[in-house]
Amino acid sequence: MFSIIQAAGWPIYPLLLCSIVALALVIERISSLRRRRVTPPRLLDEVLSVTSHSLPSADVVEKLADNSVLGEVLASGLRAVIVEPRITEVKLRQVFELAGRSAIHQLERYLNTLGTIATAAPLLGLLGTVVGMIEIFGSQGPSGGNPAQLAHGISIALYNTAFGLIVAIPSLMFYRYFRGQVEEIILELEQSSDRMLGHLMRFAIQQPPAANGNIKG
Fold this sequence. Notes:
This protein is mainly α and 217 residues long. It is 76% helix and 2% strand. It has one domain.
């Protein structure tokens, strides 16, 4: 492996750094986007069952928020109704939307970096190819060619091109895979929030309608 890095020259070092970062991001996202950590299958039904007759205590809400990303979204609605019993449906929907935006930001963490690596790796490989071509042309002189420099230039060009593709292709595949996962999770969060919204409005104290200002004489 070390001999390959030596033959590939200095342009391969940025590609090695990209490969290490991409591998770390893929491992982190695989761990963070697990369904048990994001949207546990029976969590919504359990919350609806526990809150069927009354709202939970603050400790229970905090445990729910620490459970998962879905738990954070559901807990935000519970906190809003507990703090403001006369909350309107529009305001409660806004609370869920803000919590959903925060959850989406958390789900999409590092994906832009992974996508950037997938885009930049072939360009870095192309840079290595250009450096190798410069070495090849430099090996040719008026008095004849330098075989060692020619072979080194060919090695730089080929190794960097191949390594750039080796880094870019898996990075792009995982980027697309994680994007699809995030979109599925977002849809599930929206559906769960809608169900929770209708459930929580049963506990909201409805304000009486405004009195008519017209006085009949």
